[in-house]
């Protein structure tokens, strides 16, 4: 039996002894509204008599009086009053032929109020028993300032599922007025779960202003399933369905080509970005951090996207040549592999952190630089190819030793485990099998030797039951999804496609799918950002960039595959907002008052086009970790994917992934493979003072620019369809 609070213990009796004030039926579900003393409840009754109650309003030590009810086929509007204020509740059913429902609650206080407590808004009900006897499992709930999502299965008394999305964007004004935060507001302990309005501590809720205090979308299901693959797919599809319905912030254009050139100039000229060892320059991980030895991951995290930019620009940069010179120096003859720290400086490691030891390897750090080296090798870099092939046997040896289940830290010479699990009972770095599989696939493409394909399959098999827990670090989880998709394309084994969905569900439960408009959040775009780790309190430039590139690759590689429909909504939209959002990691675009005075590593130079590692939502200052030089590849990666050069007159920018592009004479064709109910940006960037006469059409419909000036014409095509540009 579960224990409950007083605010839940009497709820079932209150509901069962009251008469419904409104009843409406949708897609086999019956929805009843009850006014029970201090709570206005919406009770969803399913097709198998399962019941779930949603507290749409709480009267704050008072009692509700109803003074207006207006009902139509798809909407209910209820106005209530108490001694303390006025409430308005809107209940609607936004999807035809669906039992998905939405409720929004607005409150206007009669006098300034301190609110020290607010009950959660979801309770499972029984037919005749007690709430305490119900049972369920929460699969996903909010951590920190991630999305206001709760995804759960009810196992007793009736099996069912619940997908709940609290649109936290709507509650931002409340937080700004009361100096509260929306972190950790959507979770709970069974049976009292859901959203809990932030309590006020210092600033009272002002009187006379109308605030949205809840904006929830709910999709109940009439069955449950313990299959992790099905749970992950249902999660993604439910999230995509609700994503289409919520209000989303407008995007804005940033000149990424200009940012890329500023970044190159600063990398070339700012001495704080570099250190030298034996006459060879290496990038620092953080600006002006000269104490930490050079890392292989840092060099390649910038070099790989820079090589993509060089191919796009048809130009070679000194930075690229300098980085290429130092790659071989990271080969450690003791283990016959590329390693994390520059071997010539192992004696400089100060052991101030677990990983800052000569023989300590963080599992993902072995694979990540080799993945980027292998990419360079695929693009024709013979130096990189030799380093990869000289290292791959050691990587395989480690995989076999750990049986494809890697710990967090181990001794790179003896394979002794130093730290086995991220947390007790949580296992090690669960997405490393996917990163290893991606590396093996790249080596397979280089060598054509099937043993590497076999290694990729063996590692991938260790991800098939991970469910939502495949996520350790965002970029590596995204790499895993790509490796699994490619394995599916090579082998036609559907298990790999299904497992790629699990990795993507891990990514999409670690996003911030709301727009923070309180505290410092008002100063930058933060909608649809992704967190680097399960418990990270901030979003990070480098991981965001790599997730962006990986998901771009995933959706393009899936263009001819019948993938989960919701992914054609979520992935292109993530890319759109990433292109819109990532510029705000550059301190030049942020108000100085939101930057931290204390920096953990190195220093911050606000006029330098190198990104901060960390952006916080709300009241915490950003840049606390430092200015990460290894995140400087963001602009290079974005330009090479979102800009298409046509001729000397103009080029094309789009914020959606381009599934295909062809050009014939004076016609260019590009395809968007998202959803037709959503839109993206397509801009014509003029290279000269005079414009060329253009015609742009999508699916044979002529498009007109919504904005035009001497430098750029901006269009809003649909997210799905073929674009033809004629000049």
In words, what does this structure look like?
The chain is an alpha+beta fold and 727 residues long. 29% of the residues lie in helices and 24% in strands. The chain contains 16 helices and 36 strands. The strands form ten sheets. Strands 5-6-7-8-15-12-11-10 form an eight-stranded antiparallel β-sheet, with helices on one face. A five-stranded antiparallel β-sheet has the order 1-2-3-4-9. A five-stranded antiparallel β-sheet has the order 27-28-31-35-34. It starts with 5 loop residues before the first helix and ends with a strand. 52% of the residues are buried. The mean pLDDT is 96.
**Quaternary status:** single chain
Low-confidence stretches: none
Strand order of the largest sheet: 5-6-7-8-15-12-11-10
The share of residues in helices is 25-40%
Identify the overall geometry. Answer: globular
**Separation of termini?**
72 Å
What's the pLDDT, averaged over the residues?
96
From the helix content, strand content and strand pairing, which structural class follows?
alpha+beta
- Beta content: 15-25%
